[in-house]
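Hypothesis: this fold can be encoded by more than one sequence.
Test: take the structure tokens below, design a sequence, compare later.
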């Protein structure tokens, strides 16, 4: 588990140069417009600068969102990310005059970005750029047909490429009286509710061209039909939903609020853990200077015992082996029969015994489906041989890193991440609801994602930054415990936009508050990592100064717990809630705690006793 401090390069800032001269449209002399006609021209595109989120725009497969960087002007721009065979088209329908000339223009950046118009009644048009590393203007013109009253303007990318950006889209031509906004929708009701989603439906509104869905007063998405499923929600959480109808004249008043509470989820097999649990790693395959501790000698205070470590035969093989500590290194090691018998006795006493995969030396990269399948079969063999309750994922180092094009933690595409998620789901399905799944990432792979995610928009960042987020998010309903290693860490920015460093309760409070509150990923307020349940969180701390950098005294441990569960002793950091159901603490390690006369365990027992 020991790790050295890492830092991430800050993204380079790009200056945007203001264009001082207005664009001039050349009109052939034969069709020159009179000054009166020019005065009648208007920009018909609604929310072309995306300052009102995605209002008036609909993006295929929920591929689009608004971001505050990079932008060409104002405070927002569109980011849309192609996935699979989808081109991430974002479009709006605009009311136009028949037999009239229009100019469509917009600024884009990215690779293979298109701007176009369809349904013109004459010849549909589009223009594109192969590569725009900075903002580039695209412009095209068209004439509407003799009976055309609506056209669709759009942007899209191309499959297999990364995200593209668009801003300041305009459609200039003869304006049309848009009339009045539609009436507010009625009949809103909630249908199927899961731990992370709510299905909604409502009655159609005459004259509406689309609908905006609001969650707790904040716009969540836009749709064209009269039903939608809102996803990415937190388990066991109450929400209020509203819907507004949209047409060319604007947005209606919102509907009456419909409440819905998501289910608690499966809980990851944690239902028979005590309300407050103590988790520790047992050096089962090495001594590490702390001495060997026999399984039978682990005190009853330890509720979850992680066997450290199962390691791969090679980084990319997926073939995990668990080797007991040899007698030459651990003279007091028990034999296999006694070790297995002690595990059985612990489980009979209600304790959970897991195999922990990875650690400092066990780099695991499931880059292929073959490695994924080998991982599943080899881990299953260990679980079955030793009669274990489940699995702990302690991938460190270079095990997880994001591909440059993988920018959405909700829909990962990087093979090592996709294959790990698949493998863990397979193991969960194989062993059923009682299977215990825990994870022990470093802050670099989780909370650092608040500032940096992967290589970043301009490249140059460490691709490992935030790389655990898609794994945690995909498995949040199956995850029993998450115990981030709040040690061996550099300073990390909290939700207060201040850097927090190891050495006291403040660091643990700020890092845990992020997990329980949720946080924007890479600073994007429209892309939030949802909070986890408090019963899923145990705080990772070193058992002693020998165990790792960032050890804190029992007094600081208690301040941390007081702040998070009782909102006392919080110091300068203001938490976003109070969580008496916080599950407990994790430590590296049981062996080092024994070496330190069980100080960590005794303090836990006294606090929760």
């Amino acid at each position: 588990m020991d790790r050295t401090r890492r830092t991430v390069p800050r993204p380079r800032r790009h200056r945007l140069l203001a264009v001082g001269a207005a664009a001039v449209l050349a009109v052939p002399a034969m069709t020159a417009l009179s000054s009166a006609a020019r005065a009648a021209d208007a920009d018909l595109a609604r929310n072309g600068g995306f300052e009102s989120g995605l209002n008036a725009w609909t993006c295929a497969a929920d591929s689009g969102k608004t971001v505050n960087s990079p932008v060409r002007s104002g405070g927002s721009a569109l980011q849309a990310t192609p996935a699979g065979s989808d081109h991430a088209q974002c479009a709006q329908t605009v009311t136009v005059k028949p037999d009239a000339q229009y100019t469509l223009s917009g600024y884009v950046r990215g690779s293979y970005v298109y701007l176009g118009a369809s349904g013109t009644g004459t010849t549909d048009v589009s223009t594109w750029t192969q590569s725009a590393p900075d903002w580039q203007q695209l412009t095209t013109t068209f004439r509407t047909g003799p009976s055309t009253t609506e056209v669709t303007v759009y942007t899209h990318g191309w499959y297999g490429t990364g995200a593209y950006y668009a801003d300041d889209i305009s459609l200039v031509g003869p304006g049309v009286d848009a009339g009045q906004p539609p009436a507010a929708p009625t009949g809103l009701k909630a249908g199927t509710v899961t731990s992370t989603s709510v299905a909604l439906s409502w009655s159609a509104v005459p004259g509406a061209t689309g609908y905006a869905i609001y969650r707790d007063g904040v716009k969540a998405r836009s749709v064209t039909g009269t039903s939608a499923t809102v996803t990415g929600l937190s388990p066991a959480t109450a929400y209020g939903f509203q819907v507004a109808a949209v047409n060319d004249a604007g947005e209606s008043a919102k509907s009456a609020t419909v409440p819905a509470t998501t289910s608690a989820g499966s809980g990851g097999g944690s239902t028979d853990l005590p309300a407050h649990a103590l988790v520790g790693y047992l050096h089962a395959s090495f001594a590490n200077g702390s001495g060997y501790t026999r399984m039978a000698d682990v005190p009853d205070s330890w509720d979850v015992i992680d066997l450290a470590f199962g390691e791969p035969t090679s980084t990319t093989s997926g073939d995990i082996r668990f080797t007991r500590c040899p007698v030459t290194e651990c003279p007091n090691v028990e034999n296999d029969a006694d070790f297995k018998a002690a595990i059985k006795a612990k489980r009979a006493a209600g304790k959970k015994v897991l195999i922990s995969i990875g650690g400092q030396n066990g780099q695991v990269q499931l880059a292929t489906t073959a490695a994924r399948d080998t991982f599943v079969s080899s881990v299953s063999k260990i679980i079955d041989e030793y009669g274990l309750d489940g699995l702990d994922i302690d991938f460190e180092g270079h095990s997880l890193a994001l591909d440059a094009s993988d920018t959405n933690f909700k829909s990962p595409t990087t093979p090592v991440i996709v294959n790990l998620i698949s493998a863990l789901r397979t193991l969960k399905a194989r062993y059923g609801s009682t299977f215990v799944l825990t994870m022990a990432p470093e802050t670099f792979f989780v909370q650092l994602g608040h500032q940096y995610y992967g290589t970043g928009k301009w490249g140059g960042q460490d691709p490992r930054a935030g790389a655990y987020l898609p794994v945690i998010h995909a498995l949040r309903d199956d995850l029993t415990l998450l115990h981030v290693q709040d040690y061996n860490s550099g300073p990390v920015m909290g939700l207060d936009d201040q850097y927090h460093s190891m050495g006291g309760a403040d660091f643990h409070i700020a890092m845990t508050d992020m997990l329980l509150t949720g946080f924007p990923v890479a600073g994007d307020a429209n892309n939030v990592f949802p909070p986890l349940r408090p019963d899923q969180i145990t705080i990772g701390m070193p058992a002693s100064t020998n165990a790792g950098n960032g050890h804190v005294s029992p007094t600081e441990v208690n301040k941390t717990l007081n702040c998070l569960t009782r909102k006392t002793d919080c110091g300068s950091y203001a938490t976003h809630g109070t969580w008496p159901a916080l599950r407990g603490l994790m430590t590296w390690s049981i062996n080092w705690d024994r070496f330190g006369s069980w100080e960590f365990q005794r303090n836990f027992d006294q606090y929760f006793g």
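The chain has three domains: 40-172, 187-259, 275-606. The CA atoms of residues 197 and 231 lie 4 Å apart.
Hypothesis status: open.
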